[in-house]
Design brief:
Rossmann fold; Nucleotidyltransferase, domain 5; 31% helix
């Protein structure tokens, strides 16, 4: 930590790791020391700051008292001021402030970003151009969450691309003041779950959270040989403006109730006349039934003129998107060809909306903004385009699954001998099998 905090001529100082590593404690003490040396303006940021007490304000006040500097600093509800040098600590929540209000902090000398793992891309886009004073610094403390989070990608994976940056991994093993209470908590966590231990105490990224739409354990990157008995399904989602046009070619296996995504075609800024040239990259695609987004009938007509005679307008009903997601979540497994990178990362990063003020997970899918991730040096721009194509392709399966099952009688009926009369009940899984067989029959016409 000493190397991180006191190496000269650094714009970015980044500390990341697990719990009880002393990151925030060390940062705050270093900021107090810097404020005593000369007059500077320090801005302390969090993504969400409901009140001054929910900021790092309390930690700074506590450290000032522990260092015996209470008489040198004047503490108010809005800021902390050093009476000796005139240095100030100010506090802001980035998500709840406008662009103009953030710009009012242009003169800061040091910007301390606490809990940087939850800072959104939008907040970074507003903050970074604002902190532009000569010799200004940005200090970041973070406990990583997801490998695809904007802060983790920028500050940990690609820290070497930042101007004059230093990045250090810090964990409880580096903290000389690690308490016995924290040690017992750490050991209990390690005995309970190694995955939780690595994430919470060693700062490794977590693979799955409750806000994720799909269970990662059921999504597999695996190339599979295609069996003749599998139902062949193809879906297309047309692109609009900044959205890509997507075709997903896949198979449904009845016996294992699973999908195999065999091919994906993702076309950015494609003209109508050029789309068929991309689609024919999928083997024998002109012979397949293709269900496409019905909102673009002119695109469907154009593709039919170019030889895609079996392209259909997919059905839409109220809640069809939600029904499709429910159906996919109910599959036992989804296998994805490793070449279908866009589909894999789209499904594994799709999340439900989370209320920024209460942290409560909402029932709606967070598909309003694109997610930019970088994998092996390649940038991917994700939303729900591949997912929509999959839902269009699965239309007959979803509709078969959606058929209403009759409610059971409240009072069971018995025969003259008192034996329970067992009436046959509709079975959603059997209807899926029936729908899949019907799909196979249509595809073989």
């Amino acid at each position: 930590m000493l190397e991180l905090l006191f190496t000269p001529n650094k714009t970015w100082r980044i500390a990341w790791g697990g719990r009880s590593s002393g990151k925030s404690w060390s940062f705050v003490r270093a900021l107090i020391v810097r404020s005593l040396a000369k007059k500077i303006r320090i801005l302390c940021c969090r993504e969400i700051q409901r009140s001054i007490k929910s900021s790092i304000w309390q930690l700074i006040v506590d450290q000032i008292e522990l260092l015996g500097l209470g008489e040198i600093f004047d503490t108010t509800r809005d800021e902390i001021r050093c009476l000796r040098t005139g240095s100030t600590f100010q506090f802001i929540g980035l998500a709840t402030n406008t662009v103009e209000s953030v710009k009012s902090y242009e003169g800061v000398s040091i910007c301390f970003v606490d809990e940087a793992q939850v800072i959104s891309k939008h907040s970074w886009d507003v903050l970074i151009p604002t902190i532009r004073k000569t010799d200004c610094e940005i200090w970041c403390s973070m406990n990583p969450e997801l490998e695809t989070d904007p802060s983790y990608v920028m500050l940990v994976k690609n820290w070497h691309l930042l101007d004059r940056a230093i990045c250090v991994n810090v964990n409880f093993t580096d903290n000389p003041y690690f308490s016995q209470k924290s040690r017992k908590d750490m050991e209990s966590c390690r005995n309970r779950s190694m995955d939780e231990y690595r994430h919470i105490w060693l700062g490794e990224t977590v693979k799955h959270t409750e806000s994720h739409v799909f269970n990662f354990d059921r999504i597999h990157l695996q190339r599979k040989p295609i069996e003749a008995s599998w139902s062949h399904l193809v879906g297309v989602d047309w692109g609009y403006a900044a959205d890509p046009c997507v075709m997903v070619d896949m198979y449904y296996e009845i016996s294992t109730h699973s999908l195999y995504i065999a091919n994906e075609i993702v076309i950015w800024k494609a003209e109508t006349a050029s789309i068929p040239d991309f689609f024919i990259q999928v083997p024998n695609i002109r012979d397949c039934v293709i269900r496409a987004d019905s909102n673009r009938p002119e695109q469907i007509s154009a593709c039919r003129r170019f030889g895609f005679k079996r392209m259909l307008a997919g059905k839409k009903w109220k809640g069809n998107h939600e029904d499709g997601i429910d159906y996919l979540r109910g599959l036992y497994d989804i296998y994805i060809n490793p070449d279908c990178v866009q589909t894999y990362y789209e499904l594994t990063t799709l999340r439900y909306k989370v209320d920024k003020l209460t942290d409560q997970i909402q029932p709606e899918i967070d598909d309003t903004q694109r997610r930019n991730i970088e994998i092996d040096g390649v940038s991917y721009n994700l939303k729900d385009d591949c997912l929509d194509a999959i839902i269009y392709a699965c239309e007959p399966l979803i509709l078969g699954f959606k058929q209403k099952v009759p409610d059971r009688k409240a009072d069971p009926q018995t025969d003259q001998y008192g034996q329970l009369i067992r009436k046959p009940q509709s079975d959603a899984y059997a209807r899926q099998q029936f729908a899949a067989l019907g799909t196979n029959w249509m595809n073989n016409l």
